[in-house]
Design brief:
The chain has a four-stranded antiparallel sheet, with no helix packed on it. The longest helix is centred in the middle third of the chain and has 17 residues. Helix 2 runs antiparallel to helix 4 and helix 2 packs parallel to helix 5. It is built from five helices and four strands. 42% of the residues lie in helices and 25% in strands. The chain has one domain. It comes from Nitrosomonas supralitoralis. This is Beta-barrel assembly machine subunit BamE.
Length: 130
């Protein structure tokens, strides 16, 4: 009985890393906004503040960088599967689950935006998309 209790405690203690990592992955951004006609305010509300903003030849140019993550449903599903696998394998799943979550931690993205005089997107240039 004592050995069973010790195993149960060990499983509970070890079984959190991949579950926690899956639940805390970055959110999925709406990249459908990366098109002409979208306002600067809409871009900032979705992607956050630009990392660079400058004027060239009377036009505003900005660079946005972010990590493209996962939908809430995907993150919840992954966390649930990690938790179930941890229980089924008495915590040994962490040897696979944690490196998996490290590898699938979202994709770095960066894009440059050129606005017109009304801060409406005139042109989008993808700089980095993994």
């Amino acid at each position: 009985m004592l050995l069973t209790t010790q195993w149960l405690v060990w499983v509970v203690v070890v079984s959190g890393c991949s579950v926690f990592m899956a639940a805390k992955q970055p959110e999925k951004k709406d990249i459908e906004l990366l098109k002409e006609g979208v306002t600067r305010t809409q871009l900032i509300s979705e992607f956050g503040a630009p990392v660079m903003s400058e004027y060239k030849d009377g036009k505003r140019f900005e660079i946005f960088k972010f990590i493209q993550g996962y939908s809430t449903g995907t993150k919840a599903g992954r966390a649930f599967l990690h938790g179930a696998a941890n229980v089924a394998t008495l915590g040994l799943w962490e040897l696979v689950g944690t490196p998996t979550e490290i590898a699938f931690s979202g994709n770095d993205m960066a894009f440059q935006v050129e606005y017109d005089e009304n801060d409406v997107v005139n042109e989008i240039t993808i700089i980095k998309k993994e």
